[in-house]
Write a structure and sequence with these properties.
By secondary structure, the protein is an alpha/beta fold. The chain has two domains: about 150 residues, no CATH class; about 240 residues, Pyrimidine Nucleoside Phosphorylase, Chain A, domain 2 (3-Layer(aba) Sandwich), CATH 3.40.1030.10. Helix content is about 45%, strand content about 10%. It has 16 helices and seven strands. Strand 2, helix 10 and strand 3 form a beta-alpha-beta unit. Helix 10 packs across helix 15. The radius of gyration is 22 Å and the shape is globular. The termini are far apart. The mean pLDDT is about 95.
Length: about 425
């Protein structure tokens, strides 16, 4: 399928969208685009993280003859020696970070300790944003290993503010909901109502939220929470208080300044890096159960493993739901991947297939959904039991019913 690029975007953005998709989706640069990028590199117009992300994609894809015009920004022959190119563009990064870049370029994977040490650099204030962009994008394009994810997640945990490191107050079991931080661009979100439902089932619900890092920018869960008048939790101690209507909202910027700083780098990098997966598994409260989503098939099993290693006793991963949320579609079934910790520390896994009889003729497609409108639907539903939107109401009902089936299995199987 041809890649449609906006000619008004910076050349480097168009370049990343061409070469930085992945092993199967990346395409070659046109000679014209390569020449335009070379000019911007020479003139210093390209942000460091974007430069790293672009050359990571180019290195994974392989450099082709029509792309060698990029040498104009460096020196003759440099593109024929990717290690030399890497040394040039990451020269301001610490020696260890440069070494990891070279290891990845040579086709090596990282063990857990090396990934943890890399994470300490990635989330530090040390120079080297080109290396950060290169590393994050290279890992994404070639797919991260479970060991790499675990090491990086441990490094993220080290950056948490002290008020989010203390043990959770005693009380009802904790259920964490973690929607993608870039949210949705074609539907309304029902997540606060899912939180409300599970709180009535005897859980304290915590939502992971944060600034929108893209690539979708219409609205995310935090935008809707703000439109509902919700305030972010100031620390783990807040779970000792009375349950808020929809649960507590744990904002990334308050939990980890280092993690929140990456939002700005990700805006430069365009494509989702490993953090779009990992940030949803940050577990400050050592929650009992996690609910998250995986739209693309390969990520379902991967996310199960990350969640198990992150300390959750029970895991629900919604597969093939509405993209950008844990909500169920109305015209097709969904799979809920389940994992329950056993007494010996192992996990029992199960796949729950939920078929929803079609209740509508077409799936909801909202162009440019607005958080204020979404919040109004939620407020109406809380007040009267209906929102005024048929698709929205049906989705609330089917999603809560289906997730409750999954919860029953977890409660029966967690030891």
């Amino acid at each position: 399928m041809a890649i449609v690029l906006d000619p008004n975007e910076p050349a480097i953005n168009r370049g990343i969208k061409t070469v930085g998709i992945g092993k199967k989706g990346s395409k070659s640069l046109t000679p014209e685009l390569a020449l335009e990028i070379a000019g911007d590199l020479r003139s210093g117009k390209v942000p460091d993280a974007a430069k790293g992300a672009f050359f990571a994609g180019l290195c994974v894809k392989g450099i082709e003859p029509q792309e060698e015009v990029l040498e104009q920004a460096f020196a003759p022959g440099v593109l024929k020696d990717p290690l030399r190119l890497l040394t040039l563009i990451t020269a301001d990064a610490p020696e260890f970070a440069q070494w990891v870049c070279a290891q990845l370029l040579r086709g090596h994977t990282l063990d857990r300790q090396t990934a943890y040490d890399l994470g300490k650099f990635l989330f530090s204030d040390e120079p080297g944003d080109t290396a950060r962009g290169w590393l994050a994008s290279f890992l994404r394009v070639r797919y991260e290993t479970d060991e790499e994810y675990e090491g990086l997640l441990k490094a993220i945990d080290d950056t948490m503010a002290p008020v989010f490191k203390v043990p959770a107050p005693h009380g009802d079991p904790i259920l964490q909901i973690a929607e993608p931080f870039d949210g949705v661009d074609h539907s309304y979100m029902i997540t606060p109502l899912i939180g409300r439902f599970f709180q009535k089932e005897g859980y304290r619900v915590v939502h992971q939220v944060g600034r929108n890092s893209g690539p979708k920018f219409d609205m995310n869960l935090w935008d809707i929470a703000q439109a509902l008048g919700e305030a972010p939790a100031q620390g783990n101690f807040e779970l000792a208080s009375h349950k808020p209507s929809f649960g507590w909202f744990f904002h990334q910027s308050l939990m980890s300044r280092a993690l929140d700083q990456w939002v700005d780098l990700r805006h430069q990098m365009i494509k989702r890096p490993f953090l779009s997966t990992l940030e949803r598994f940050v577990n400050p409260l050592k929650a009992d159960i996690l609910i998250a989503s995986a739209f693309h098939p390969p990520y379902g099993e991967k996310m199960m493993t990350i969640a198990e290693r992150a300390g959750f006793k029970g895991v629900m991963i919604v597969r093939n739901g509405i993209e950008g949320t844990i909500a169920f579609p109305l015209l097709r079934g969904v799979k809920v991947l389940l994992s329950a910790r056993q007494g010996d520390g192992s996990f029992r896994r199960h796949e729950l297939i939920i078929e929803n009889p079609p209740a509508v003729d077409v799936e909801e497609m909202i162009e440019k959904p607005k958080a204020s409108e979404n919040a109004d639907l939620i407020k109406n539903y809380v007040k009267t039991g209906v929102s005024g939107n048929k698709h929205f109401d049906l989705r609330v009902g089917s999603t809560c019913t289906g997730l409750n089936q999954a919860l029953i299995w977890l409660k029966e199987n967690i030891q």
